[in-house]
Design goal:
By secondary structure, the chain is α+β, with helices and mostly antiparallel strands. It contains 11 helices and 13 strands.
């Protein structure tokens, strides 16, 4: 029994690795007779694996599209999640080839309806650049929500949902155009059909309502650069905490020092500018602005002012503890002079 089970797993691996095999080729690879191959193919079919055969001299076999998911010990949502994760893995240096092989094997046996879900996610998703991390736990997004939003993007169906952002709740019905993954968060770029306004919406702040809205005729975002749109707009509205930082330096110098995904720089005059930025905690914003290496002034939000002052006191104490003498210079003033 153990030999039979091992041989069937080897047979399944061969069928998943290549689209088409002759019976003679399989028999040679497995070192068995043609009759044993035929019997093992029948056993795989009995377990739910869709093996198609072309009868004739030698016979040929391939994995077909089944009517149900074969027994991979995966739920359907898990199978979709694995396929999406493997697609992401093909962009990770060092595991590109193994991820691609595993994805090919899984997609060979996905039922048609699950293939549509995976393809909808593939076609609807783009990824922004990775950036520095956060001290806030990554938000949890329900895979079924991700699939439903991707399907709405694919089928041009409006989304009806409740949206809770920074304590405010609203009920919306919008046209979804693109899913964007950035900083381990998911955003859907959507258009308001009555006002023709665009915005990114975080999926972990959404709760879909059923049924969905009506079908719509697409009116794509001008330029259709949805990823850049999200990176730009999130600096204004997509974070849990937002801040405007007055910086004692020209805008060009600040732009030269920051990752463009950190925020937006607004010029004030030849020697001053404002950095509009945000994050999911005041701690991570303090890290961003501390890395500028420029003098800055914080006036809001109050929690950020308090945190910057606390960090400044901590640094001064560290200097005194090291040198044994009071740190030079005035105490930190986090209030904006303007």
């Amino acid at each position: 029994m153990a030999d039979t089970a091992a041989r069937m797993l080897a047979l399944l691996g061969l069928l998943q690795a290549r689209s088409d095999w002759s019976g003679a080729e399989l028999a040679q690879r497995l070192r068995v007779t043609d009759r044993t191959v035929r019997n093992d193919i029948d056993r795989l079919r009995g377990l739910g694996y869709p093996v198609d055969a072309v009868r004739g001299p030698g016979g040929r076999y391939r994995l077909g599209v089944g009517t149900k998911l074969p027994p991979l010990l995966l739920e359907e949502d898990e199978a979709v999640a694995v396929a999406v994760g493997l697609r992401a893995g093909t962009a990770v240096r060092g595991i590109e080839e193994t991820s691609a092989r595993a994805l090919a094997k899984l997609e060979h046996v996905l039922p048609h309806r699950l293939q549509r879900r995976v393809n909808a996610l593939r076609d609807a998703v783009s990824a922004g650049p990775e950036n520095t991390g956060s001290n806030v736990d990554d938000p949890v997004v329900d895979p079924s929500l991700l699939s439903e939003v991707a399907a709405a993007v694919r089928d041009h169906v409006e989304l009806r949902f409740d949206y809770r952002a920074r304590g405010a709740a609203s009920r919306l019905q919008l046209e979804p155009y693109r899913l964007v993954s950035w900083q381990r968060r998911w955003f859907v770029v959507a258009r308001h059909p009555r006002t023709d306004t665009w915005a990114p919406y975080r999926l972990d702040w959404m709760e879909l309502r059923t049924p969905g809205g009506r079908r719509f005729s697409p009116h794509p975002l001008p330029g259709e650069d949805y990823t850049s749109f999200v990176l730009r707009e999130v600096a204004f509205s997509g974070w849990s905490v937002h801040a405007r930082i007055d910086v004692d330096a020209p805008a060009e110098e600040v732009l030269a020092r920051i990752n463009p995904t950190v925020g937006v720089v607004e010029s004030i005059d030849a020697e001053h500018c404002v950095l509009v930025t945000g994050g999911d905690s005041v701690e991570i914003i303090a890290v961003y602005i501390g890395m500028l290496g420029l003098d800055f002034h914080v006036s809001e939000p109050p929690d950020l002012v308090e945190h910057v002052a606390r960090v400044g006191d901590r640094y001064r104490r560290a200097v005194r503890a090291t040198s044994g003498t009071p740190a030079p210079g005035p105490s930190l003033d986090s209030r904006s002079p303007r």
